[in-house]
């Protein structure tokens, strides 16, 4: 049985609020983490994981070397057979996670809660196994309506991970410095689903994790998705940067500000690398597919630039200046 008391504290919540992310080591008991890893490997061997797919520009794209098992829908989990320790995650740890986060949130002295989680909605839970070579492009876990995700928590199950293995999660605060976090065994990484741009770097070895997404009661409201002229009444670019850094509206302009990085990571994640840690070759995507993805990306960026060119150009300049420091 899962120890119902997780290391969820007011300090965690304050770090999340201040930095938009927080890292907690030893988040799971050792014995539970080891059982989860063993059962994930067994279920993968039994063919219960599906190759990951993602949507881009109206296309469903396969993500090489990345497999997942969705535990969000209880009506489907029975099809997986014996879930082992993952049954405890679905029935105990997941619901307890949401309740404890909400209890700590409500106990804060602030007049309004920091998270406002929807405790009536069960968390979405997905197990992911990277067999080596896969990665994820820059993205937000909550790209916009009708998504209701407020909080993301990624928990890693990699007891043998060492520097050089890859597979780190990389967070990129808006016009801030990139934060690279190794996927250490039992480590949990928390961040806001609707305002933290992130990706997963290519992994050279087998990498296992699971993600818990919690819905919020005040997610994707009009102020979070409508970038109107009234919103853009800034007195300086400094004021504009400060606003977007704390607002989900950064999602509207992010692809244009980080255009080169978005495209590079998108193309990188759909290239099969069979070499893994011991070397080998890449199997590139067909030129027609690559050209189509580039065209769709550039069209999306141009749509933003047409309306907000001076702002985007200034933010790009600031991004380059920060990275060169």
Write up this protein.
The protein has 325 residues and is α+β, with helices and mostly antiparallel strands. The protein is 38% helix and 22% strand. Mean pLDDT is 90; it is low at 273-282. The chain has a 7-stranded antiparallel sheet, with helices on one face. It has a 4-stranded antiparallel sheet with strand order 5-10-7-8.
Reconstruct the topology from this structure.
Elements: H1 10-19, E1 21-24, H2 30-45, E2 50-56, E3 59-70, H3 74-77, H4 86-106, E4 124-130, E5 136-139, E6 149-156, E7 169-172, E8 179-181, E9 188-192, E10 197-200, E11 207-215, H5 222-225, H6 237-246, H7 250-257, H8 259-269, E12 272-273, E13 282-283, H9 287-324
Antiparallel strand pairs: 1-9, 2-3, 3-4, 4-11, 5-10, 6-9, 6-11, 7-8, 7-10, 12-13
The largest sheet is: 7 strands, antiparallel
- Shape label: globular
**Termini distance?**
49 Å
- Largest sheet strand order: 1-9-6-11-4-3-2
Report low-confidence residues grouped into runs of 5 or more. Answer: 273-282
Pairing-aware structural class of the strands and helices? Answer: alpha+beta
Q: Radius of gyration, rounded?
A: 20 Å
| Helix share bin | 25-40%
* Residue fraction in strands: 15-25%
The total of beta strands comes to 13
Mean pLDDT: 90
Compressed to H and E, one letter per element, the order equals HEHEEHHEEEEEEEEHHHHEEH
- Give me the number of helical elements: 9
Care to give the gist of this entry?
This protein is of the alpha+beta class. The chain has 9 helices and 13 strands.
Keywords for this structure?
325 residues, alpha+beta, four-stranded antiparallel beta sheet, 9 helices, globular
């Amino acid at each position: 049985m899962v120890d119902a008391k997780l290391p969820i504290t007011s300090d965690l919540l304050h770090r999340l609020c201040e930095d938009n992310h927080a890292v907690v080591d030893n988040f799971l008991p050792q014995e539970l983490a080891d059982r989860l890893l063993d059962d994930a490997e067994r279920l993968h061997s039994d063919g219960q994981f599906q190759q990951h797919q993602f949507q881009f520009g109206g296309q469903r794209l396969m993500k090489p070397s990345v497999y997942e098992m969705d535990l969000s829908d209880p009506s489907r989990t029975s099809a997986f057979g014996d879930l082992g320790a993952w049954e405890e995650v679905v029935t105990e740890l997941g619901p307890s996670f949401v309740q404890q986060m909400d209890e700590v949130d409500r106990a804060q002295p602030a007049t309004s809660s920091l998270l406002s989680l929807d405790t009536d909605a069960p968390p979405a839970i997905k197990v992911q196994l990277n067999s080596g070579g896969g990665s994820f492009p820059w993205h937000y876990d909550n790209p916009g309506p009708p998504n209701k995700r407020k909080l993301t928590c990624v928990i890693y199950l990699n007891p043998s991970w060492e520097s050089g293995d890859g597979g780190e999660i990389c967070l990129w605060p808006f016009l801030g410095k990139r934060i690279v976090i190794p996927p250490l065994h039992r480590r949990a990484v928390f961040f806001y689903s609707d305002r933290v741009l992130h990706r997963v770097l290519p992994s050279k070895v087998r990498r296992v994790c699971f993600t818990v997404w919690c819905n919020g009661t005040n997610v994707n409201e009009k102020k979070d998705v409508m970038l109107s002229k009234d919103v853009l009444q800034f007195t300086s670019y400094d004021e504009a940067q400060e606003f977007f850094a704390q607002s989900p509206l950064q999602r509207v302009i992010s692809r244009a500000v980080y255009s080169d990085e978005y495209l590079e990571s998108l193309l990188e994640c759909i290239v099969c690398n069979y070499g893994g840690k011991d070397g080998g070759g890449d199997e590139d995507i067909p030129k027609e597919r690559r050209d189509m993805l580039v065209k769709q990306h550039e069209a999306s960026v141009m749509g933003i630039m047409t309306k907000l060119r001076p702002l985007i150009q200034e933010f790009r300049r600031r991004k380059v200046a920060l990275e060169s420091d």
